[in-house]
Design brief:
Blueprint (H helix, E strand, L loop, with lengths): L2 H22 L9 E8 L7 E2 L9 H8 L8 E2 L6 H4 L3 H11 L4 E2 L4 E6 L2 E9 L7
Parallel strand pairs: 2-5
Antiparallel strand pairs: 1-3, 1-6, 4-5, 5-6
């Protein structure tokens, strides 16, 4: 194998490994307060997003919050100065997607979204350990 071809293959391999690392590593990093999607039962009337048929793969934080005994999803910690959200799926992504699914279901100037799941109604919000609500 010629030297230039070997170097090209090594460079290509390095680039592939680096891109995989950029995609995988940030989800394992975290610092600061943990953020959760919290689903609280409510009887508030009005439009609501139907979450019964929502994919668990697309909305893992939401489905965990809706089925958990305490109504909370797994925690998510921001890292890398906030750039982690560019590379990793977060509760913030899911909350934004819920707001886009039905604008009429948004409450309190975007702090909550009403959701129906298996016939029950929930108010979904982003909360943190610090208790400061959505950040």
């Amino acid at each position: 194998m010629r030297r230039i071809m070997r170097n090209a293959l090594l460079l290509t391999g390095f680039v592939v490994v680096a891109l995989l690392a950029v995609g995988a590593v940030p989800s394992y990093l975290g610092s600061g307060d943990a953020y959760y999607l919290e689903a609280t039962p409510t009887d508030e009337a009005g439009a609501a997003v139907n979450a019964t048929g929502i994919s668990e793969r697309r909305f893992p934080y939401l489905t965990t919050a809706l089925t958990a005994d305490d109504g909370r999803s797994e925690g998510y910690q921001r890292a890398l100065g906030g750039y982690k959200t560019l590379f990793a799926h977060s509760p913030f992504d899911e909350f934004d997607a819920l707001q886009r699914l039905d604008r009429e279901a948004v409450r309190d100037d975007g702090d909550r979204v009403l959701v129906t799941y298996d016939g029950d109604r929930y108010s979904v919000a982003i909360v943190s350990d610090a208790g400061g609500g959505e950040q």
